Amino acid sequence: MAPLTLSFLLILLCTGIPGADAESTANIIIAPKGGSVTIPCHYEDRNKTGVKYWCRGYYWGSCTSVIRTDSSQNGRVFIRDNATQLVFTVTVRNLVVDDSDYYWCGVESDVDPAAGESFYLSVRDPASESTNNWIEVQEGGSVVITDHYEDTYRAYSKFWCAGRTVDPCTTIVRTDSEEGDVSVRDDPNQQVFIVTLKNLKKESFGYYWSGVNTYDSSVVRASFYLQVTGGKMCRSDCAHEARFHSNAISLLYGCGAEPSDGVLHILGSVCAESA
C-alpha cells in the first residue's frame, strides 16, 4: 500500500458558554498557510434574530469584531447565517501566519448578548507539519477525521482500519456504513470522506489507518495512533457535519494543549465532576 500526500482534517469537539468577561478556553485550530477553514457557530432560538459576529481577542468582552452577519464579507473572511438550523458559519480563506490568534463566535442582542465557542487559530507552514499523527483524547469523547481526496478516487470505496501495520490491518468500517460507534460517510461532490469515532473508551487505543479501495489495490491516505485517557468530556454542541475546504498537507482541529515535538495532544475540556 503506497502512502499518498495527506490532505485531511481532524476535529475534536467540546464547547462552553462563557460569561462576558470570560477568558478563552479555546478549541485549538492548526491550519496551513494558504489554506482555508470554515467554522460552525451554534446559538439558541431566542437569539435567532440577533446579529451574529466573529471577533478576535483573548477576552470575549473586549474582542475586536472581524465580521458580522449584517456584512457578509470582509476581505478573506465570509459569514453566513442559517436561522433554520440555528447556526452561522465563518469561512477564512487564504490563511496567513498573522491570522494566528484567539477568536470568538457571538450574538449581538440588547436583551441577551451571548458568547459561543472560542478558538485559537494557529497558522503554520504545511511543509513543516509532522505526518505522524498522535491523537490523545479524553475517555467518552468524539473525534471526526475528514480526508480530502483526489478526483481519481471519487468512485471508490473508502475504509477505516486498525492494526500496528497497514498490511495487514483489520477493516472496521467502509464507506457509508456504521459499526458500533464508528462510521464512514463519503461526499463525492466535495471529494471528502468523514470518519466519526464516538464514545471513545480506554481500550480503543492503538494504530488506525484511513484509505481507499481501488479495483486492484488499497491506497493508504493517513495513519494515526489513538491514546484514550481518563476524564469526562463536556457535552458537545458543535456540528459534525460542517464542510471544510483546504489544500492542506494537514489540517488539525482540537481542544486542549498546543502540539509540540511533532505530537498532537488533543485533550479536550474536562467537566468539573470527576470521571
From TrEMBL:
Matches recorded under Pfam families: V-set
Family annotation (CDD domains): IgV_pIgR_like (cd05716)
Top-level taxonomic group: Eukaryota
Keywords tagged on the record: Membrane, Signal, Transmembrane
Native source organism of the sequence: Scleropages formosus
GO molecular function, one term: transmembrane signaling receptor activity
Entry coiled-coil feature ranges: none
Full protein name: Ig-like domain-containing protein
Annotated signal sequence range: 1-22
GO terms under cellular component: plasma membrane
Annotated InterPro entries: CD300_family_receptors, Ig-like_dom, Ig-like_dom_sf, Ig-like_fold, Ig_sub, Ig_V-set
Residue intervals of the Ig-like domain: 18-122
Subcellular location: Membrane
Membrane-spanning intervals of the chain: none
